[in-house]
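Changelog note: in this version the structure field was regenerated for every chain. One regenerated record is shown below for reference.
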Amino acid sequence: MRDVFSSMGTVVSAEWAPALAPILGGLTIEDAFAELEERFSLYRPESELSRIARGELNMTHASEQLRSVYEEALGWRTQTEGTFTPHRPDGVIDLNGIVKALAIRRAGAVFESVGVSNWSINAGGDLLYGQDSLPSTIGIVDPNDRSRLLCSV
């Protein structure tokens, strides 16, 4: 089965087998993304992060979840020596990269919770696979020339 939807400013696709709907207690793959998008999306003016970006909410008054994710993102910045940063060039906090990874993990947990182990999720090029669906080869596209493959692993 396949599900394709838009979330966090990108296209998300999920594929799984067998034909078992990935639902547990009403939670779906899309729900795993939607909950995080409601809090962290800069595309939604009502989100907590958008309110921080506009100066309507101070980080010290933000939710524990938002502060925790921001702290994790700062850790990524340190570990990558600034290659990853949770700040856009204009200084606005943008947690999309790290939140997308959290959403993918949550969506994967939905599959696992209903006993589906053959699945994959692609959220704008960020990939996660179930234990029974690891591909034999993954291609890495050149970010400067999307028609060119840098390598395969």
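Spot check on this record: DSSP finds four helices and six strands in the chain. The CA atoms of residues 120 and 129 lie 4 Å apart.
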